């Protein structure tokens, strides 16, 4: 009132009842649009998602069928090329389905939220509380924008035949041609150049806070969650949305050296101090392996055959043991010249089995990756120099993927090194914001789950296509 009757009236004056009524009209208009337009569109999009997924599968089935038809026209020696195309199609299909399913999941998840918004808006419209009305924030723009369809085109297969002279097959940017020349260059073009192009298309899918600092280990479960561990005497299961699904208190009073999943999906972890590898079952935690006196278990890897590879350490040396239950089936610690395969030291060497049965070890004490065949003979060593990192090479967790590529964390250079199964350096992933990577796993969708030591976060990275 003083502003009106005195000289202090340099600003516009509006009655609070008018502001209140105008705001209610805006909320009423918003609610009407959500009920009459937005919600029906979300429900329709959700129904259309099933159709899109079915159509996507049919198209990819036709694509694979056409690929197999063309395969019969090519010589047997180029089977490796078609196997590569099959892998590319599978990867494209899984990525496409992942996008469609993620969009469907988002639609389903937002419908209850929108319904709750409508309910809340109606309650506000019935209310005479000024603060509830004036503090209302609209989500209408977000709801409108979230209806956009994901744009992922289905690739087409192109073939060309000049009988007796040339056959060619092309899938988007990936092409193979058979002419009257050596096939080795063609295999290299498909398996090496195409892989490099795939690795250039890297993006971060999610950043997941775990609440575990420092974060030591990560093992993905399916495509939407992971077990993690740090210095706590517990294991935590978090999903891709950052929610904690389970916390498992350990029976031992010490944190695990490493964690992994068996072929059946059961969680196992190693405790160096009491020389055990433990398994988590419905009935509780059981001791799966008790290592020999003076040998402590460190890195773990569960193989496709059901065995467990364990890196063991004593005061003098490191060793790999292949366990089938409690029984040691294989011990690897010397090369063909009788020299120690791995450097001694306090740091944990990590281990992974490749698709060809090869054993990949990140020997951090020697700052080297060592890859062995199934008999334990050295196939090659990798010292990180092809990547050209200035800070040197400190390999940590190591994994392999469906294309038999070897992926190893470089703690010092904040990146991931990717090699093919024969040790050829392919690429460094260093633009994903992964400072001090210290946990690594590949999920069922072929994505990397990278743990960040200091931040206590997981970066989910799609690194192929």
State the major sheet: 4 strands, antiparallel
Structural class of the helices, strands and pairings? Answer: alpha+beta
Q: Cα-atom Rg, whole angstroms?
A: 28 Å
The CATH architecture assignment of the largest domain turns out to be 6 Propeller
First and last CA, distance: 66 Å
Overall shape: it is globular
Sheet with the most strands: spatial strand order: 4-27-26-25
Residue runs with pLDDT of under 50 for 5 or more positions: 181-194
What is the class of the largest domain in the CATH system?
Mainly Beta
Instruction: Count structural domains.
Output: 2
Number of strands: 27
Helix fraction? 25-40%
Taken as a percent bin, the fraction of beta residues is 25-35%
**What average pLDDT do the residues reach?**
86
CATH topology of the largest domain: Neuraminidase
How would you explain this protein's 3D organization?
The chain is of the alpha+beta class. It is 29% helix and 32% strand. It is built from 6 helices and 27 strands. A 4-stranded antiparallel sheet has the order 4-27-26-25, with no helix packed on it. Strands 5-6-7-8 form a 4-stranded antiparallel sheet, with no helix packed on it. Strand 1 (157-162) and strand 2 form a beta hairpin.
